[in-house]
Amino acid sequence: MQRRAGLAVLSVLALISAACSGSSDDAAPNSDAPTVAEAPTTDPPTTDEPIENPPATNAPDEATQPSLTDSLAVVKPGFVISPGVEQVAITGATPGSTISIVTTTMADQRMPVGAVNAPPDGGEVDGYGSFLFRNLDATTDWRLVVDGASITEPIDVLARDEHPDPAFFAEQSLAPGVNYIEMRDGTTLSANVVLPGPIEDGPYPTVVEYSGYTPADPNGTGFKDLFTPLGYAYVGVNMRGTGCSGGSFRYFEYVQSTDGYDAVEAVAAQPWAFENHVGMVGVSYPGISQLFVAQTQPPSLAAITPFSVIDDSYNSTLYPGGILNTGFAVKWTQDRVDNGKPAITPTGEIIETGGQGWAKDAITAGDDVCAANQSLRMQNPELVAEIFDSPFVDSSDNTDGLSPRLFVGKINVPTFIAGAWQDEQTGGRFPTMLDRFTGTNKFYVSLMNGLHTESIGPANFPRWVEFLDLYVAKRTPTLDTARVIAPILASGIFGTGELALPADRFAGMAYEDALAAFEAEPSVRVLFEEGAADGTAARTPLPRFVEEFESWPIPSLEATEWFFGNDGSLGDTAAETASQTEYLALPDGIPATFLAEESAGNSGDIWKLDVQWDWQQNAPGTAANFITKPLSETVTMAGSGSADLWVQSSVGDTDLEVTISEVRPDGQEMYVQSGWLRASHRALDVAESSALQPAHTHRAGDVEQLPDGEFAPVRVEIFPFAHVFRAGSQIRISVDAPGNNRPVWIFDTISGGEQVTIGLGGAVASKVVLPVVPGINPPAAYPECGSLRGQPCRAFPG
Q1: What's the DSSP call for residue 75?
Q2: Which among 686, 685, 661 is positioned nearest to 672, based on CA atoms?
Q3: 438 vs 31, residue with greater confidence
Q4: Percent of the chain having pLDDT more than 70?
Q5: pTM for this predicted structure
Q6: Residue 195's Cα: distance from chain center in Å?
Q7: SS3 258
Q8: Other C-beta atoms within 10 Å of 1: how many?
């Protein structure tokens, strides 16, 4: 067991390093969807002469109506049409030929080819003989036009809720090792099956990991090395367009969600899957994917455990406050583009650059399915270019589809979600959607200070094992094996194995009693002061104390105001007379860590106990700073915050960063949290906004420059956090240009030395609204400065 569990070191390091860096009726799948055209028997028409379309299909004459095959006279043998979910894939076409898709009405009206031949409705067939049409309405009859010749039979695109009959999944057989799971459109996804023992000793509780990384790599390390020692069967599935999987990759387009549905159902149908249901596991990317899959409500999905996730792509990490994150977000996206490149040329030679190495190894070893599945890779879009072309939420047709907060209410299975406030990758904003998980009454949350890997640290690991044992394995939880694995995980990720898991809470209980006890506990658990647990080294990933609540936001939460004063004070009342303060907006492009700027987008070492932070004070005159008097009593905060500012700018716009910190009696300042906003994006969705969380529209039509020479109200969202400000400490608020306080984030800021003026008092009273939670009794002594994970300390200059 020790040796087997020891593999988890490599497993998690590889996993996390990769991460960083409705109808209820089932319809049969379109099993006849891929249509292969026979060889043409007539010469193709020339494009110099007009093409006369054949009779319309809505008034057919069976004697004269051309068949689909007859209409493919301009296409080489082997031409395949594969309708999918809101897609139509073409393979086996002639490279360089032009192809477009039109509605039946357009075809019947004999629209000129030029009118239907422009992207996104069409283009040129790539060197692999492939083309992919996306975002097609499933209620519309579509036809193809190839080199000017119309294909007359309608193509039936699949709708989102056209789920296959269960027999479709039951007919698929998966065995230990690499398999290919067939999707409803005929695409096959590579999947690696790892069982904890022989098939005949099953069935086994089963978990699925699903992402565009390398979960299907049979020789790689990953969660398979973590879960098989715990007695679980593990299935790692590569998303379409990645690894050895077929299809084309685009970040969380809806077909990835339905693929997840199909993968879950196919795995659950296996005789070695306990009770023919599965759970899902994963951190970051394979955590986020669980939200997208679970919204489709696969019947055999038992539970999900999405860790270190986002609430929506735009606000969480890509464009926080409307400011592009070129550090982590753009670099991560570029990595996905590179990983999705084809492994072989159209003539079958291995391509050295791009793609996934394990797929190249598989093809070299003779995996013809993997080789064939590369054929649509040139249809993967240039996602980085799309990011730069989509600075507003309405500049991409897929914006809402990339926002889990808009659909998590559809999730109807037990859910355990966890993450950290200061997550340097996904951003830590995900708690703002927790109240939207209305589709399940079995909902559990763990929230903590720290970084991207905190969710699978030893503080949360026991609860994770308990949850999976109860809802997937359906057995009384035990931490016996977890006690071996957890120190190894901690050593590999955090650089320490000096910790111990608690005793089994449910020892001696029957399963039903253990489940009832677990469900009787408050669902929300906040781990305070992670890194400062008594008797451990600084930054050891264990909390100092834990508080539990029935829901989030915390019901007893009090939105509390502090006003900016003209003397740099922060108090509970605003000055009656208006005044102002100003600063030069000079951004710092280097993240607040020891990492060099060229390393932005990578993490790894900042998770270790020996991390060396370099959180710098602003240069004089480059920030507006406000601070309270020493607190007379301890104040505990947990939730989102809002900086309600009155702002002017010398150039009509500016990028704002608002940071909350604690100044301690020992002369040290500890980072707590930040928020960002481009002032021209200040328009609010009033219905979605609250005193503690402004919700900005970020729509192009709502962008408005700051008025010249006048103050404008601007509300900056401060991301969620939980922190104890002890009696004697001071709360500090800083307003400046973005940079130097969120590791591996780089902001593509417009700020560059403009003068920013903040209104104070009177009619332009700026303030901050923070989430005070009464009734918390934390330990009286201060934690060691710099011990809290994700919260660096520095000397305070005051």
Answers
A1: S
A2: 661
A3: 438
A4: 86
A5: 0.90
A6: 28
A7: helix
A8: 10
